[in-house]
Amino acid sequence: MTAWQELGAGAGRQERPAARWNGSAPRPDADPPWPGSWQPLGARFRTDPEGGRGTNFALWAPNAEAVDLCLFDERGRESRHRLAEQTYQTWHGYLPGVLPGTRYGFRVHGRWDPWTGARHNPAKLLLDPYARAIDGAYTAHDATCAAVRNWPERDVADTVRDDRDSAPYVPKAVVVDDADDWYDDQRPKTPWAETVLYELHVRGFTMRHPEVPPELRGTYAGLAHPAAVGHLVRLGVTAVELLPVHHHVSEDHLQARGLVNYWGYNTLGYFAPHAGYAATGSRGQQVGEFKRMVRALHAAGIEVILDVVYNHTAEQGVMGPMLSFRGIDNAGYYRPDRSRRGYADYTGCGNTLDTRRPQVIRLITDSLRYWVAEMGVDGFRFDLAAALARGGDGVEMEHPFLAAVSQDPLLSRVKLIAEPWDVGPGGYQVGGFPPLWGEWNDHYRDTVRDFWRGARPDVRELATRLSGSSDLYQRGGRRPYASVNFVTAHDGFTLRDLVSYDRKHNGANGEDNRDGTDDNRSWNHGAEGESDDPAVRALRLRQLRNLLTTLLLSSGVPMLTAGDEMGRTQGGNNNAYCQDNATSWLDWSLLDDPGWRSLAELTAKLVHLRRAHPVLRQRAFFSGRPAGPDGQRDLAWLTPAGREMTDADWFSPGQALAVRLSGSAMSERDQRGRELRDASFLLLLNAAPEPRRFVLPAPHVPLLDTALAGDPEPAEVTEVLLTGRSAVLLTAR
C-alpha cells in the first residue's frame, strides 16, 4: 500500500480507529462522566450536588454517533471520556475534579460523506465553539486538515479522509471560572448622537508607548494603563472600536511567509478573548484581564465596541484546517454550495456561516450576550454584515438573525454597527439596514476624499454627506447617527498616507503588490511618499486639518482611526493586515514633533467643540425651513458671496461652499421638554488651489482656520479670505 493509499484508507467509511499520539492509547470511557446537564453549552465549572467541584461539558452535535471529551494534562498527555448522554441533539456530561485552567477538546465520531456535507473525523481534535478561553497556537500542518491535502487527484482530494492526529498542532479550550464581581463597573451609556468612535488595535496601540511598561505593551492591560487611557481622554473620544479580539489564528499561507494575521479577521473562538493580547497568561487569565480593561475604560467614560467576525471562520475552504465547526457538524454550521461538498463563499475567506439555521443564530446571539452581560462591552461592529442577513434569495432585511437581535432585550440596547456589504451578488447594502443599526458610510468616505483632492465637479454630494446623508438614512425612521462617518479605517491608507501617496506600496505583504484596493482616492500633492519640500509638507498638513475638520463637524457619528491625529504612516501600505511590526504600531514619538502635536491638539479641539455644542451633533435631520425666533433656517447653504444657494448654484461647477448651522432654530428638546438653544456656526470650505473670498451673512468670530497652525485672531469679521485648500469655522457673536 502506498503512502497516499494509507492516508486515504478511511475515505467513505463511517468509523475508523482513533489516531493515537504521545506513545499511548487513552482509553475511551475512562472515568465515565456523570450525566450532567445539556445546558448551558460549553464548559461550566460549578459545585456538584454532593458538594464537590467539577465541570459540566455540553456540545451540540446533532449528527454525531459518539463524542469523546479529551482532557490534557500539564505534559500534554490526553485522556478521553465518552459523553454517553444526549439531550436535544446535545452531548453532555459532568466530570468531578476538573478545575479552571484545565485544557480540553472534543473528538466527534460520525459519517464521513463529503458528497452530503458530512465530514466527521475523530482523528481531529476540535475546539469547543463555546470555549471561554483558548490556549496554544495553531501550527500550519497537513494533519490539521480532515482530508488529504496532497492527494494526487486534486478534484477529489476533499473526499479522501486524513486519519492523522491533529492534536499536537491545534489550540485547546480552557475551563474558566466565571465568577466575577462587577459592582464597581459603571457603563458610560453615551447616547448615539454624542458618540465619537476611535478605531484601534489592542496590540498596535501600546507596542511603542514609552510610558506603558514593556511587559504590558500590546496587551489588554496595556490599553488599560493610565498613559493609554489618558490619551483617549485628552482627545475626548467616547468609545473605542477594537479590531477583532475574539481568539483568532493565522492562515497557512501567512505562516509559510513568516507573517501573521495581525488584524485578526480569522476568528476561531467567539467567546474567548484573544490569548495573544494577554499579559497575565492564556489559561483563563485573559478573561479577567479583558474585564479589567473594560472597567478602566468605563471609569474614564469610554465605551468599548468590538469588531466581530461572525460571517466566516478560521477553517476556511474545504481543504482548510478542521479546528471546530467543520468536524462537529459541517452541514449544520456552514452554508453549502450547490454541490454540497463545498461552501457558498460570500466573504472571500472560503466559507460562510449559515445564519438561516437556528443553531447558528443561537451561537451568534449567545456570543453577543456573553460579551455584553459578562465581559461588559457596549456594542459591536459587524464585519461583512450583509453576509449575516443572507436568506435563500440574497440579502434580506427581515432576516431571522436581524429579527433576533432587534427583539433581544439585552442586545437591542447596545450599539450595533454594520459594515453593510459582503462580496456576494447584491451584497452592497449601504442605507439598507433597519432601525437600531448604524452603518459604516463609505459614500461619506469617498465624497470627502474626492472633494479635498479636487475630484468633485460640484458640491451637491458633499452637502448631502455633511448634513447626515438623509438620502440613505431618513427612510424607516432612522436618524443621522445611523451614518458612521469616516475618512480612513484600518483597511486602507492612514490619513497621512492618503495625502502622501498616489499608489499603494504593499510589497512587504509578499503578494507582489496585488493585494489591497487600487481605488484609494488619494493624492500625493506632488511627491510620492515622504518629501523634504516645505511647500509639499505644508500643503499635506493643511489637508490633514481639512479632512479632520470636515469629519468632526459633519452630522452623524464620526470615527477616527488610531494615530491619524498624530500623523501615523504605514509607508503607503494600504492593506497592512499581516504587518505585526512598526508598520502598523503607533509611533508615539510623533507627538514630540510640533507639527504632529498641533494636529493632535486640533483633533482634540474639534472633538471637545462637538461635545460642547448640540447644534454640531443633532439627533434629527435638518428641515431646511425657517424656524426659531429669528426666522433662520436650521441649516442654510451659502455661496461665497454670502447668499443662499439656488438650483443653478448647486449644479454649477465649484469647489467652495459655506454652511450655516443655526443654534436658535434647533428642533430638539432637553430631558424636560424645553427647546434647546445653542450658538450658531458658519463653516467655510475651499477645495480650490487658489484663495477665495467669502462674504459673511452677519458678523462672526473665527474659531479655527486650517491654514494656521494655531488659533486665528478672535476678532469679529464680516468677510474672510480663505487660503486655497483650507477650511474656516466661525461662530456668530
Short description:
GO terms for molecular function: amylo-alpha-1,6-glucosidase activity. By secondary structure, the protein is α/β, with parallel strands linked by helices.
- Average predicted local confidence, pLDDT: 93
User: Might you state the CATH topology name of the domain at 42-175?
Assistant: Immunoglobulin-like
Distance between the termini: 91 Å
Give the spatial strand order of the biggest sheet. Answer: 12-13-16-17-20-21-22-23
How many β-strand stretches? Answer: 29
List the uncertain runs. 1-29
CATH architecture of the domain at 42-175: Sandwich
Helix/strand/pairing class, anyone? alpha/beta
Number of helices: 17
The shape, in one word, is elongated
What quaternary form is this? single chain
Question: For the record, what CATH class of the domain at 42-175 applies?
Answer: Mainly Beta
Major sheet:
8 strands, parallel, barrel
Q: Which percent bin holds the helix content?
A: 10-25%
CATH homologous superfamily assignment of the domain at 42-175: Immunoglobulins
The proportion of residues in beta strands is: 15-25%
GO molecular function, one term: amylo-alpha-1,6-glucosidase activity
Protein name: Glycogen operon protein
InterPro entries: GH, GH13_cat_dom, GlgX_Isoamylase_N_E_set, Glyco_hydro_13_N, Glyco_hydro_b, Glycogen_debranch_GlgX, Ig-like_fold, Ig_E-set
Pfam families: CBM_48
How is this structure best described in words?
It contains 17 helices and 29 strands. The protein has 733 residues and is an alpha/beta fold. Among the domains are: 42-175, Immunoglobulins (Immunoglobulin-like, Sandwich), CATH 2.60.40.10; 623-732, Golgi alpha-mannosidase II (Immunoglobulin-like, Sandwich), CATH 2.60.40. The longest helix has 19 residues, at 534-552.
